[in-house]
């Protein structure tokens, strides 16, 4: 008989008809007369209840149906007497695909800690919480592709292996086939990469932006959506060494239009979650973060604050004067830390903030320099609970200014010739941003740690699974 997925079975009106489902047993309980099996197949957070009549099945027959076992079940779909579900299945036949020894299966108990579940990341998708998170993750990916497709953007595939450090922060993972046990160096003590796989040193990309700009200079509006890698030794609940980034790049827009895009896009994604993931959100709202759904609604209903960095610093210094204690300093010119960002967003304004016009020296080389010569047209979006969720900017389109900045920062010119060609030939004003996919996931799920919104997190000292 053809399998019905549980999300459809639960909505079915074919009462009295035979139905066939497959899934993993969440629990089995009962009494002398009946056994109740809660079955889940991942299609929804909800289980279907299967009722086994003990005059038809012996306890011995049902014994392998323990928490974690995988079974198929056939039976009559009937209206349910119990609360919480409209239908259930009266078991007529079943097959055990795989048992799960109750002495050894680690997901027996409820309320296991997130830390423990990380050590069994290969099994945690079978919990309610991670099932919900990963279904939402899929939905957010669909939201992103749909948004850009509907707005006339092209999905542009930028390389994962590259020779350029877009952010200039020196946080790249090297890619080499050289024998690391026998590295030859030249007379200056430098490694010779000419005989390496790519004939030069290469690394995993930290951002698809530079190549994305090349796409925008031909197709007008593009976006990337792929993995990015940063060898930054940050052990925080908001950093991963491998994370996914969405990077739209758009020709002919200015700073205001860029901020409009950032705000519209993020609201679209949050609205998508509310429209398509309510069962999972309700679960997370109940068990993970009681304020979640309210916070999601408030973000789509509110206008984001647009705040120049300099004004932000004034607000922070005013707060310090009034007794607020921060761990890190906040003088003009400092990079804001997440405590500063969260103070502005959560305490001062109580809503998302798009911070603009940062000091030139704390931002990357490609940002458009303002008339004052001191600030650049960056437009980061700061979110409650998260801090920075988007990093964006207008790009410096002027060849001479960009070239001077590359010189000033001593970025090796020979590596950047192709990037500079966009400013040599048909240069156009353009802008773009990068959204950290897992930071969006943190916001949308209410999860506290970025390691718990990606199936297999990569962090310092951890590449298990
Ligand atoms: O601010 P970032 O470094 O900006 C860029 O990479 C630009 N090239 C983007 C662009 O303009 N096209 O990173 C962008 C976003 C951050 O705002 C943050 O959400 C996320 O990427 N991010 C990280 N997420 C998880 N782990 C990390 N280590 C991250 N580093 C940045
Ligand atoms: Mg940034």
Which SSEs are present, and which pair or pack?
Layout: H1 6-9, E1 18-30, E2 34-40, E3 48-53, H2 59-62, E4 70-79, E5 87-98, H3 114-119, H4 128-150, E6 154-155, E7 161-162, E8 174-175, E9 202-204, H5 209-219, E10 221-229, E11 242-251, H6 255-276, H7 278-287, H8 292-301, E12 305-308, H9 309-321, H10 338-349, E13 353-359, E14 375-383, E15 387-394, H11 399-408, H12 417-424, E16 430-436, H13 437-445
Parallel strand pairs: 3-5, 6-10, 12-13
Antiparallel strand pairs: 1-2, 1-4, 2-3, 4-5, 7-9, 8-9, 10-11, 11-16, 13-14, 14-15, 15-16
Helix pairs in contact: 4-6, 4-7, 6-8
The structure holds 4-amino-1,4-dioxobutan-2-aminium adenosine-5'-monophosphate and magnesium ion.
Average pLDDT works out at 96
Poorly predicted segments: none
Oligomer: single chain
What is the ordering of alpha helices and beta strands?
A: HEEEHEEHHEEEEHEEHHHEHHEEEHHEH
Distance between the termini: 36 Å
Task: Going across the biggest sheet, name each strand in turn.
Answer: 6-10-11-16-15-14-13-12
DSSP summary, beta strand count: 16
What kind of sheet is the major sheet? 8 strands, mixed
Shape: elongated
Look at the helices and sheets and give the structural class. Answer: alpha+beta
User: What is the CA-atom radius of gyration, in angstroms?
Assistant: 27 Å
Bound molecules: 4-amino-1,4-dioxobutan-2-aminium adenosine-5'-monophosphate, magnesium ion
**Range of strand content:** 15-25%
So how many helices?
A: 13
Helix content: 25-40%
């Amino acid at each position: 008989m053809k399998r019905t997925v549980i999300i459809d079975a639960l909505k079915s009106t074919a009462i009295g008809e035979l139905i066939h489902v497959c899934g993993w047993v969440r629990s089995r309980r009962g009494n002398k007369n009946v056994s109740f099996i809660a079955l889940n197949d991942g299609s929804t957070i909800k289980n279907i209840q299967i009722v086994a009549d003990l005059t038809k099945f012996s306890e011995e027959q049902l014994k392998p149906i323990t928490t974690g076992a995988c079974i198929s079940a056939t039976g009559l779909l009937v209206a349910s007497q119990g609360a919480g579900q409209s239908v259930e299945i009266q078991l007529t036949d079943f097959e055990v695909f795989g048992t799960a020894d109750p002495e050894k299966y680690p997901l027996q108990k409820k309320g296991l800690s997130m830390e423990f579940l990380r050590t069994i990341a290969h099994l945690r998708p079978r919990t309610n919480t991670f099932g919900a998170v990963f279904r939402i993750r899929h939905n957010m990916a669909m939201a992103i592709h749909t948004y850009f497709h509907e707005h006339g953007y092209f999905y542009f595939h930028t390389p994962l292996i590259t020779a350029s450090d877009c952010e200039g922060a020196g946080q790249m993972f090297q890619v080499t086939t050289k024998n690391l046990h026998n590295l030859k160096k030249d007379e200056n003590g430098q490694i010779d990469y000419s005989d390496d796989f790519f004939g030069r040193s290469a690394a995993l990309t930290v951002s698809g932006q530079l190549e994305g700009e090349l796409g925008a200079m031909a197709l007008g509006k593009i976006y990337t959506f792929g993995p990015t890698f940063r060898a930054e030794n940050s052990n925080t609940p908001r950093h991963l060494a491998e994370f996914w980034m969405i990077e739209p790049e758009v020709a002919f827009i200015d700073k205001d239009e860029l901020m409009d895009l950032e705000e519209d896009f993020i609201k679209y994604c949050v609205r998508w979650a509310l429209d398509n993931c309510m069962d999972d959100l309700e679960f997370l709202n109940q068990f993970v973060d009681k304020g979640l759904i309210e916070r999601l609604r408030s973000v789509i209903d509110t206008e984001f604050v647009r705040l120049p960095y300099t004004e932000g610093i004034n607000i922070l210094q005013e707060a310090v004067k009034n007794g607020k204690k921060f761990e890190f300093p906040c003088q003009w010119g400092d990079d804001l830390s997440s405590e500063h960002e969260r103070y502005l967003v959560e305490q001062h304004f109580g809503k998302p903030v798009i911070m603009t016009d940062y000091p030139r020296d704390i931002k990357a080389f490609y940002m458009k320099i303002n008339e004052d010569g001191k600030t650049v047209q960056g437009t980061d979006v700061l979110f409650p609970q998260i801090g920075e969720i988007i990093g964006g900017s207008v790009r410096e389109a002027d060849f001479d200014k960009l070239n001077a900045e590359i010189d000033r920062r001593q970025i090796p010119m020979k590596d950047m010739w192709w990037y500079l060609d966009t400013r040599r030939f048909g240069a156009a004003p353009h802008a773009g941003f990068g959204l950290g996919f897992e930071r969006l996931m943190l916001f949308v799920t209410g999860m506290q740690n970025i390691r718990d919104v990606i199936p297999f997190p990569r962090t310092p000292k951890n590449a298990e699974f």
